[in-house]
Amino acid sequence: MLKLFHKGLSWGSRLVFQVHNHIRLTLLITLLALLVMLPTGAQGWGFWAHRRINRVAVFTLPPEMLGFYKMHLDYYTERATLADSRRYTVTGEAAKHYIDLEHYGKLPLLNLPPHWKDAVARYNEDTLNKHGILPWNLSLVQWQLTEAFYRQDAGDILKLSADLGHYMADAHVPLHCTKNYNGQLTGQHGIHALWESRIPETFGEAYDYYLGQAQYVEKPSALIWQVISESYAATDSVLTLEAALAQQVPDDKRYTFTSRNGTAQRNYSPAYLERYSAVLEGMVERRIRLAAYRLGCMIFTAWVNAGQPDLNTLHYNPTQEKPDPEMPKLQMQDREAH
Length: 338
Ligand SMILES: [Zn+2]
Description:
single chain; P1 Nuclease; two-stranded antiparallel ribbon; binds zinc ion
């Protein structure tokens, strides 16, 4: 996937071009036609959505847990996007963010073993890594978090809770469960960022974040596969609704161009964002709410399974951490689909 990733980036860089005054109009018209085939500077679940999901999940936790997470809320929320930056520095990280379900036949969810060992026995590790390991990785991080609660390691509890939030959020995105993850197979380049970054960033402040109290999850693995199954079932709507809308909206109404210091970039127009959000009938808000609520449930479950350690006795001072090599400065334009 990293190959596609870099391909995406080089396409992205072509979007930036010099606009000379005397040929500005001609260039714009020509490039309008060309750019339709190219992706915008796509991003994963935007920073905004990842942070919001991690943050609001905390408020589903019971009082015994709430104080600890509130005390470290900024640190934990800030780390919501760290897993994405690791894709550049840690081998094998990229595969943890998606699963291309089509690879496993017409009814992939009947073919795929929910447990990693069984999946490796059936398909081998290389195949699984090649097509994404999001659901199995989620189970692993859930187990690691349980173990961190058991050790009462405040730093690891916060880091793993933040990672669990990241992968849980990714699992709720339909386009993380299909090989057509950026509409590249259907002429819909840019739909990944449209659905999971532009719409939540534009409308997300008005979403309802009252989520209720976290519940204990008897079988975390079953919940994870349920999330994947829901996301996969929604991929068709995400893609076909946008394709139908694109038919109705001419390119000059679908995109706007911003120009700064002589460079121009293509973006979906505010009117198009509004229309796509409307035809999705609240899907983005529903997936964000479910991601946050279920994250709360998973964190709560890990704590219960670890014997409900007293978090009020734990202390952690992130400022005493050594500089984290996994925390490079993130560039928004570096965040391509998946
Ligand atoms: Zn991700």
